[in-house]
Amino acid sequence: SWTTGNVIDEQVAAIREMVGDKRAICGLSGGVDSAVAAALVQKAIGSQLTCVYVDHGLMRKGETEQVEKDFVAATGVQLKVVDAEERFLKTLAGVSDPEQKRKIIGREFIRVFEQAQAEIIADEGPAVEFLVQGTLYPDVVESGGGTGTANIKSHHNVGGLPEDLEFKLIEPLRKLFKDEVRMVGQELGLPEEIVHRQPFPGPGLGIRIVGEVTKERLDLLREADAIAREELTAAGLDRDIWQCPVVLLADVRSVGVQGDGRTYGHPIVLRPVSSEDAMTADWSRLPYDVLAKISTRITNEVRDVNRVVLDVTSKPPGTIEWE
Ligand code: XMP
């Protein structure tokens, strides 16, 4: 019968057998899937696994610390953190177009990850032959199966690596659904905040700022987002909503009045949605008093924000994210 304990034992044995005395690497995104996959592989092969976390500076408040501190404390995993905030901000400077932002963030992410990968390969130790991925059953079905080997191309030949690096994939979550992955993560002792994290896009807050991405705007949005998350959690609504993007309309200003002065600040958009799979979604009918609390706190506590608006659009026609 299916138990999380059985799944863990089976996978640990299979991974040990597969990896032998070689090494493996795993990219952590802060999300549930990569965290649980990494924790499983860590349990199987310990220090033969090295994880890489690229800090692109586009994460929400506290999320990078969760990976760096709490995840490491819970698993004992060997982690290489690359602080790439400055690099990402520099490359994103002056860019407002959503697709261009996505392209830049994706491209830089791969470059930084490959650089870290090359450094790990160059370290003393057995050959790095394996790459861990948090592929879930729905991903397997969607892509029509797959052979289990990936061809990772190194486009710019970092550190004198061969043109084509071939890794064998370890995908310990290939037979699991999301709720099962969360159960395995819980059983492995991962922090609650990681196990129950709502979906968050790879490009992070970079696609939740309508307009140019700057450090100042990111800090603003991080504050507003943290307040919204805090109040939704306090109201016990985390399990009712699929996710709640918080968006900064950096290119928009409106007039307000605060204290005894006129303000000319930016609006924050709340985009709470309910969904089964993110393909379609409906806007969540949140209690007015929770919305009021979030609005009051954001306008009081976040500098330069003088208005909070609610997105009442379903998907379609709106997407969940604004960019
Ligand atoms: P949309 O905005 O297309 O989002 O309705 C659907 C779901 O996908 C997430 N999303 C992303 N996830 N990389 C990701 O890993 C991305 O580039 C990306 N864009 C959107 C979004 O948060 C929602 O859950």
Automatic annotation (TrEMBL):
GO molecular function, one term: GMP synthase (glutamine-hydrolyzing) activity
Function: Catalyzes the synthesis of GMP from XMP.
Segments forming domain GMPS ATP-PPase: 2-197
Keywords: ATP-binding, Glutamine amidotransferase, GMP biosynthesis, Ligase, Nucleotide-binding, Purine biosynthesis
Catalytic activity: XMP + L-glutamine + ATP + H2O = GMP + L-glutamate + AMP + diphosphate + 2 H(+)
Superkingdom of this protein's organism: Bacteria
Subunit structure of this chain's protein: Homodimer.
Pathway: Purine metabolism; GMP biosynthesis; GMP from XMP (L-Gln route): step 1/1
Gene that produces this protein: guaA
Protein name: GMP synthase [glutamine-hydrolyzing]
EC number: 6.3.5.2
Record: residues binding ATP: S29, G30, G31, V32, D33, S34, A35
